[in-house]
Amino acid sequence: MSSQPEETDVMILDGGLATHLEALGCDLRDELWSARLLMENPEAILQAHLDYFAAGADVATTASYQASFPAFVRRGRVEHEAQALMQLSVELAKEARDRSGGGIVAASIGPYGAYLANGAEYTGDYDLDEDGLVDWHRPRWDVLANSGADLLACETIPSYPEARAIARLLERTPHVNAWVSFSCRDGEHLSDGTPLQECAALFAGNPQVVAVGINCTAPSLVKNLIGHIDGSPIVVYPNSGEIWDAENHRWLGLADPVEFGAAAREWRDAGASFIGGCCRTTPEHIRQIRASLEASAPTGTGGVAGDEIVARE
User: Fold this and answer.
1) Which residues contact 89 (CB under 8 A, 6 or more apart)?
2) Is 278 annotated as ligand-binding?
3) Where does the record place the Hcy-binding domain (predicted)?
4) N or C: which end of the chain has fewer CB within 10 A?
């Protein structure tokens, strides 16, 4: 692995897994998104993880974001086969880590809105209440919490009820660590309008929670959002800044990896300890993040130690 934690003061995450899989020639036009390849082309997922490690990432985030038991069942898989596919997502990331010489495996826990596949992860407009969200998440959560991943990446959470559901699931599984990151609609609020500060407070001081933060949100909002998180280390991995055209299912605009890397310095200086990219970011974005942070690391700082965030036995 090309990462050198003694030369930077943050843990560098990977970038958009689906984005890179598409660059490798994979067709992800499916409700399962990148999780489709767990059935059809797991070698491509392995290659994507390897490419992110080679670019300087310290973390591989698994291809389980859009995986769920109901979605796999609709594709003709029975329960034990769906469970095996979720476990495979972790094994592929672990293999890439081992081949690359080390790193962290984060098992992705996507929001209920990702399963709905209607953009609800960016609105929080759900048909389930908090209890319903706990029940919906629990089967996949239990698999990934016991999968051997180093931690869970609870990501793109758009609503306060879902944040509360995640907190309850963490309480049920005291042996596992996690980060929790939210999708936000502006520089202060989650996608459903709840103040980020209120949601972040649910996890402040929780020894299981290694970081709280923001993902799949415009880079221009990140610095201000960081200021609304207290009492926890901070994780940020915004999207590229491009705009999703939901009607035509395409991305609009461009994003420069060099500018993204430069922005990562601002996020670190504002307090972020974990930095990466989300949708539409690539290995080149991660390479630029590492180069930028290494070039500007404060004298005498060390990296975020991996053994501080791994799952507890």
Assistant:
1) 35, 38, 45, 62, 63, 64, 67, 107, 108
2) yes
3) 1-293
4) C
User: Tell me, what amino acid is at 111?
Assistant: P
Residue given tokens 């630029």 in the structure block: 288
As a residue count, the chain comes to: 313
Q: Which secondary structure element, helix H or strand E, spans residue 104, and what is its range?
A: strand 104-109
Backbone angles phi, psi at 221, to 5 degrees: -95, -15
Rounded Cα gap, residues 107 and 61, in angstroms: 6
- Is the confidence at residue 252, as pLDDT, over 90? no
Q: Which residues pair with 206 in a beta bridge?
A: none
Region 265-278: mean pLDDT is: 98
Q: Which amino acid is at 214?
A: I
Q: Which domains does the chain have, with CATH numbers?
A: 5-298 (3.20.20.330)
pLDDT higher than 50, residue 169:
yes
The model's pLDDT over 127-159, given as tens digits with 9 standing for 90+, comes to 999 999 999 999 999 999 999 999 999 999 999
Instruction: Determine the residue type at 114.
Output: A
Alpha carbon distance 59, 211 (integer Å): 14
**216 appears as a binding residue in the annotation:** yes
In terms of Cα–Cα distance, which of 136, 294, 21 is closest to 126?
136
Residue 274: Cβ-neighbour burial (10 angstroms; 0-12, 13-18, 19+): buried
pLDDT in tens, 56-92: 999 999 999 999 999 999 999 999 999 999 999 999 9
Residue 199, annotated as binding a ligand: no
> Model-level pTM?
0.92
3 state DSSP class of 189: strand
